[in-house]
Amino acid sequence: MLKTFLEHPLTRGVDLNNPRMTFLRRRIIEEKPFLRQIYEEWYRLLAEALPTGREPVLEIGSGAGFLSNYIPDLITSEVFPIQGVRVILNGSRLPFRNSSLRGIVMTDVLHHVPQPRSFFAEAARCVRPGGVIAMIEPWVSTWSKLVYRNLHHEPFMPETIEWEFPSSGPLSGANGALPWIIFERDRKRFEREFPEWRIHSITPFMPFRYLVSGGVSLRSLMPGVAFGLARRLEQSLQSRMNTWAMFAMITLERNAVTAKDH
């Protein structure tokens, strides 16, 4: 009942996999000052994680966002045609030459990829040595389990054994716990299967701000002017993010040539 009450009126009754939903979410981000500031902070973090160089950067799942305001000449992409997106692609088959990218960036995307192994292999082919994958994804903590399982529309299954999941649609198919499973619970397996990638950093953060913003599917519970205060409150809890984090900033660095490259 609480979830129904908080549901944003613009998205009520709209199929998650309908491209129209992306336009509605773009409008929601623009109209909710608190939420827009969250995206601005995320985009600054992603831009700062990129190495210098002339090679282009690919954003997977550009959707309703505006990351191109922060990364010049960003190659935006989606799984379906939508205004403002340059390339239509599947993350398991990237249409780029070997070592042609200096980075891949994603916001809330990896946990929607039903075949993550295929994505990591393709990304390793396309990203040059020294390049990165930088992403912001949901994270598993004591607090986030409670929130994602009760207030979020996507599946959240930290106990699942496999990384793969059935693809029910580009936006509805998901396991919100997948980034934590791959990079925390199964970290040694990831490092063994993908020596091309080094886990450069994992920073769990943001326990409350996205929640009170309402995200792109719920009503906002906080005015934009309260953003700075909420941010300082979260920073005071930084040492306890294993308990409180709802998201994590994850950066992978492409290693030098390995046996798989030959």
Question: What can you see in these coordinates?
Answer:
- With 262 residues, the protein is of the alpha/beta class.
- It has one domain (2-261): Vaccinia Virus protein VP39 (Rossmann fold, 3-Layer(aba) Sandwich), CATH 3.40.50.150.
- The protein contains ten helices and seven strands.
- The protein has helices at 2-6, 19-31, 33-48, 116-126, 142-151, 178-185, 187-193, 209-213, 227-235, 241-244; strands at residues 57-60, 75-78, 87-88, 101-107, 127-138, 197-205, 247-254.
- Strands 3-2-1-4-5-7-6 form a seven-stranded mixed β-sheet, with helices on both faces.
- Helix 4 links the parallel strand 4 and strand 5 (127-138).
- The protein is globular, with a radius of gyration of 18 Å.
- The termini are far apart.
Number of strands: 7
CATH class placement: Alpha Beta
Envelope shape: globular
Note the total helix count: 10
CATH architecture: 3-Layer(aba) Sandwich
> How would you sum up the major sheet?
7 strands, mixed
Total domain modules: 1
Alpha carbon gap, first and last residue: 56 Å
Radius of gyration: 18 Å
CATH homologous superfamily title:
Vaccinia Virus protein VP39
Which consecutive residue ranges, at least 5 long each, have pLDDT under 50? none
Percentage of β-strand residues: 15-25%
Main β-sheet, spatial strand arrangement = 3-2-1-4-5-7-6
Percent of residues in helical segments? 25-40%
Average pLDDT for all residues: 90
Counting copies of identical and different chains, the oligomeric state is single chain
